[in-house]
Amino acid sequence: MSPRQQEIEVWVLAGHQLPSDWHWQAIRQEINPKETYFIPLAQQQNLLDSPGEGRKILALSAAQQYDRIRQLCPEDVAVLESRIKSWIEGNNL
Asked: Where are the chain's structural domains?
């Protein structure tokens, strides 16, 4: 069974070193990953009071680890990359 398409918060989690007691497969299978994992991570980093509850700050940091995100969320990233490629080709860029 392949994982369902993940929320952006899961991609952000994939780009960060997570607490050792968090297991990636559990994160991927969690029905509410934002509430169960993302919010606690933002809270640990004192970002809940920042705009978007730390999404921008954590996303910018995670983006530096794109290869890690691509490895941990291969299906989702492949779909995104395919859509971007199609858009570029369709717009002759």
From this structure: 8-90
